[in-house]
Design goal:
By secondary structure, the protein is an alpha+beta fold. It contains 2 helices and 4 strands. The chain starts with a helix and ends with a strand.
Length: 144
């Protein structure tokens, strides 16, 4: 499964839910997309994919079709380096979330990473809204 297929399937699942994405009037929802995977050396990676300067530089409301990387991103494509399990956690929120300091670009970190403390801070911010949905999808990357 490539990235486009994953995102299409992910949005299909969201649209099947009782929480319509950009449906019904002027409701808007924002996507936070978190990844856990592995490097070529087999080390665990933990990235904030959306929003991020690498793949989604502007936090925009989710439309019916959401494509990554967005125009103006640092990267043109999302590559999976090694065979193994890739996991994505998608969080839809109704209000545009306040971006935490670690979620913005630095010279050292174009693709923000997360750890337990950063996830705790993110959940604190999300819980302020009180109304959100969380989706999980995993897949195995295989060698050709």
């Amino acid at each position: 499964m490539n990235t486009d297929q994953f995102l299409e399937k992910f949005l299909e699942e969201i649209n099947k839910s009782c929480f319509p994405v950009n449906g019904g009037g002027n409701k808007k929802y924002y996507l936070l997309l978190i990844n856990r995977g592995q490097t070529c050396q087999g080390e665990e990676t933990k990235y904030l994919v959306c929003p991020s300067p690498a793949f989604a530089p502007s936090l925009q409301p989710v439309e019916v079709k959401f494509i990554l990387p967005q125009p103006g991103s640092e990267f043109d494509v999302i590559n999976f380096d090694e065979p193994g399990k890739e996991e994505y956690l998608g969080i839809l929120v109704k209000e545009r979330p306040n971006l935490l300091a670690w979620m913005t670009e630095t010279e050292e970190e174009v693709l923000p990473t997360w750890d337990e403390l950063r996830m705790y801070e993110l959940w604190q911010e999300i819980n302020k809204q009180g109304d959100y949905l969380v989706f999980y999808q995993s897949f195995n990357v295989i060698n050709n």
